[in-house]
Structure formats: C-alpha cells, structure tokens
Write a structure and sequence with these properties.
Elements: H1 2-9, H2 18-35, E1 38-41, E2 44-47, H3 49-58, E3 61-65, E4 69-70, E5 77-89, E6 92-103, H4 106-115, E7 122-127, E8 130-139, E9 145-154, H5 165-191, H6 219-224, H7 229-237, H8 241-246, H9 248-259
Antiparallel strand pairs: 1-2, 3-8, 4-8, 5-6, 5-7, 8-9
Amino acid sequence: MEQSLTTETQAKYQLIKPNDITDFSKVLREFITKSQLSTKIQGTEYVNVDGWKFAGLNFGLIPIVSEPVAIHSKGEVISILYHEVERRTQQGKKIVIEPFFSSSNVELSERYREKFKDKIKKEIVHDFYNYKCGCDILNTVTGVRMGSGFGICSNLELSKTSFDEFAVMSMAQTRAIGRAFKNVLGFIMKSAGYSPTPQEEMDGQTKNVIVDEGAFLDVKSALDGCSTLDEITKLWNEMDSVSQGRYKGLFTKRKTQIQK
C-alpha cells in the first residue's frame, strides 16, 4: 500500500533537470491545446488554473489553499450603472445591456450618474463582496513548501458585478492557486509558449468595457477634475484592475501635472 502511494505521488519530471523542462513543455502544450485550457487575449495565450494544476502535478506539486478572508465591511454596497452596447454575434449585431461602472464610493457614483444620465439604462445597488485568499505549493514527495501566492476578487470588477458572495470567494481561491503556481512554474509555462500569468488574473480583458462615447467613464475628464494627489488616488482605487492597467499612463501624466 505504501509503495503504491509513493508511486502515485512521485514526480514524473524534476525542475532542476533542463531536459525534463524541455520535454515537459511539449507535453504541456499538447495537453492544453487538446483540453482547450487557454484563452487568447490581445494576441497572447493565457492558461487557466486547470492547466497550471496539470503542470504542477507532473512536478509533484499540489496547491494547499487557505480559507478566503472577507476584506469588505458588513453593510457596504456598490452602485452598478448599465448602458446599451452593440455586440457582434454569429447571428449578426445585437444590442445588450452591460455594466460600465461600479463603485462603493457614493460621491464618485453620483458624479458618473450625472455625467452619463442620458446613457444609463438601469442602475442596481448590490451588497459589496471583497475576498482575499492565500495558497501554498507543496512538494508531495518531500513535503517541502515550494512557494506561495495570494488572490483577491470583488464584485466591483465589471465582469464580476453579478457574482454572488460564494462566487467571489471561489474566484479569490482560484486566483490564489494560479498566482502560487506562477511563482513556482511561471518559467515552465513560458517555455511552452504561454504567458506566465494565469488566465484568471486577466479576467475582464476579454470584455471590452470601454468601446465608444459614453461606454464607460471618461477617465481623462475625471482626472482633469482632480486637483490633489489624494483625489487621484481615490479615483484610482475605485477602478477595476482592467481599467487601471488600461489608463495607468493617464494617471501618471495627471500626477506629474499636479506635482509641478
């Protein structure tokens, strides 16, 4: 019985052997392609957490996830504003109603409620959920902790505004697993031709949340209305991670203008 358990947990490949990494990169590429475990975003392929788990198991590594911890305050709510967007489908063009803004800041919500009052189709006030979670990567043969990572998720993210609390918790766990594996196996994924960033960290990039006039918030206009660094920081913290990445340059430019 003990021999059988050892066989099951024995790593097929070893991280310290270059030939093993080269050989496994080919195996990993084939498995992810056949299993459709990657998503192409702006020309780059990102592997979801199941693909990272497969990679880990082949090196005798498994994720040990901690219990998600709430980092929101009880009773907090968010305002979600929706607008109409024209989408292309296989059946042709289609008008859909999607969220373009979400915030737990009352003043900021009022600002954009007024700014886009002619384009808002509906507004929902929802409980605010925000969770963080940690994960350790364990070597099943030696019992040694090989690395760790953490993930955060909230329903402030435009692609998560419809998530119930359990779904936000679950995504925080999933992101923690992906981040922990990235810290240990990122170079393995890159050698297989994929981004070293897990797909779950890129959630929202596949959803074009800023496409035309009035589609989302006018970031430049909002920044022009900021006269202090504190106001800029406040605006930054109220944006989802996708928008932060997209408009980082505008924020940097406005900060420089104020500091002068």
